[in-house]
Specification:
The chain is mainly alpha-helical. It has two domains: 36 residues; 38 residues, no CATH class. The protein contains two helices and no strands. The longest helix has 27 residues. The protein is flat and about 50 Å long. The chain starts with a helix and ends in a 15-residue tail after the last helix.
């Protein structure tokens, strides 16, 4: 049982830290002098992120919600 716990801790620390890093990189895109985006773009981005966070959280509580396709801003 300790091996399962150790593996969980190792994986979750790596994955959460990677997710945090990627979220920070998304935040870097807010630089209006380097990028052009609309408020609707911002809403879509954070709606998609929030949806995935909620889906991941629900899996920990026993709900096994389906997986949607990858995020696309346009198209």
């Amino acid at each position: 049982m300790r091996d399962k716990r150790r593996k969980f801790v190792e994986l979750v620390e790596n994955r959460v830290n990677r997710a945090i890093k990627d979220i920070r990189l998304i935040g870097n895109l807010a630089n209006r002098s380097a990028y052009e985006y609309s408020e609707e773009d911002v809403r879509k981005i954070f709606r998609a992120l929030q949806k995935e966070l909620e889906a991941a959280k629900s899996r920990f509580t026993g709900d096994s919600g389906g997986r949607d396709s990858d995020f696309r801003l346009e198209g």
